């Protein structure tokens, strides 16, 4: 999770990245048959709507949604302090899909697994501004905590001491099954950090499993900008790979432990349903986190898969972006600079600076709004309309092309303005105000909640791929706010858009410590040599001896 709080956006919405924290794929195929669903009986799901950012469960319309007015004048626009001009321009029609053979093969049903996927529907609560959380019972006797779901980090940690922004914490001394491992761990995110004691204890997931599991857990005793005002969770569940786990990848992650002990497939999926709903509102939305597989009721149509490039974050390959059907025409390596990841713990769609600038220019040019303040694009200001209006009809669609499992093809996920022009609560009595759900990033393209809320997302670790399918809850007034289509040819795109993969974080730390140790040893030797007296007498200069003026060491250190 790349956790970051929206800067200057109003109302204290939690992080733009909720905490900064491989696969060759087969394409989509027919949805799995109902009998694939887990076999063990559990209590029915408690209707709580949404997933790491989403409301889940069947095809029900979104609450409180409104259809944008047709052709409403843009003059009622808002309240932006400063204005910057941008002339509207017609958008060319979207590219037509290339007719290529479609593969309908689907992996065989997973074997065994004491999990009830239907019971996991609607097992998340939260909102898009402050994250989505799962209820867990930890220790003996069980202590109930709300745990933030984050696919951008790998540690499982809970508050281990009181904090002014949380209402409960895990008291390890009260648990007879808690065992300390005798060391601390510190985890730093894009914004914020925490330090905790590492131990292990039993955990029960009330919805979907009928047994407890022994897992590694960090109890947080010190933190900075991690627990924020208004949050409703008191722990974090990192679902990325062990390569990101702190202090090292040898610490088994929560999901690896669950797969081994519950005998479930190495797959989980999420539905996040906050499309068009207020950010950081007073209530909560719902969602679904399905641990161990795919729940057919949470998606419709085909599942499209893209390979995971490396198993640390869920790193994928972006081929191009389109605004209103028009390509940005950037080198595809710009989209993958450093990395492109899918992260449920990031609130917004985050883009490398060059890509962000191109997107803002294109959105401003193709929108029906003649002037806009720079503060809206940077996140320091909100745009407000009268209560009788909604702004979504003024803005273009945004499409992201992902490489298919067949590398000669791609597919496209498209978000409508309802997903990236996001309503904010409490901004004014006579106005409804909105924020721009896209922000610049210094180190990655991050597909966060802004995009994920439009889709059912499958993290198929077993087959090293991430899948996207249409989500029934990504609708407003019965109309979908996201689209998925393909296949498209990749003949006009480079065969590899991912730059040489950087060393992942654990290796970087090892290399850094090794280099520092070598430098310290060399420095110590030099100091000792300088302090030692020279007992030797001056000898005649031998013309065959290399002196310090011409030595290799001398030249290397010039």
Characteristic terms for this protein:
14% helix, 33 strands, Cathepsin D, subunit A, domain 1, disordered N terminus, alpha+beta, 558 residues, globular
Secondary-structure topology with pairs:
Blueprint: E1 3-5, E2 15-18, E3 84-85, H1 117-120, E4 124-127, E5 131-138, E6 143-150, E7 156-159, E8 179-188, E9 193-204, E10 212-224, E11 235-238, H2 254-262, E12 267-272, E13 287-291, E14 300-307, E15 310-311, E16 314-315, E17 318-323, E18 326-327, H3 332-335, E19 340-342, E20 349-352, H4 353-366, E21 371-372, H5 374-378, E22 383-386, E23 398-403, E24 409-415, H6 417-420, E25 421-424, E26 431-436, E27 438-441, E28 445-447, H7 449-452, E29 455-460, E30 465-470, E31 475-476, E32 479-480, E33 482-489, H8 505-531, H9 552-556
Parallel strand pairs: 6-11, 7-10, 19-28, 20-27
Antiparallel strand pairs: 1-2, 3-21, 4-5, 5-6, 5-9, 7-11, 8-9, 9-10, 12-13, 12-29, 14-30, 15-16, 17-18, 17-23, 22-26, 23-24, 24-33, 25-26, 29-30, 31-32
What would you note in describing this structure?
This protein starts with a strand and ends with a helix. It is 14% helix and 30% strand. Among the domains are: 130-264, Acid Proteases (Cathepsin D, subunit A, domain 1), CATH 2.40.70; 268-520, Cathepsin D, subunit A, domain 1 (Beta Barrel), CATH 2.40.70. The strands form ten sheets. The chain has a six-stranded mixed barrel. Strands 13-12-29-30-14 form a five-stranded antiparallel β-sheet. The protein contains nine helices and 33 strands. The protein has 558 residues and is α+β, with helices and mostly antiparallel strands. GO terms for molecular function: aspartic-type endopeptidase activity.
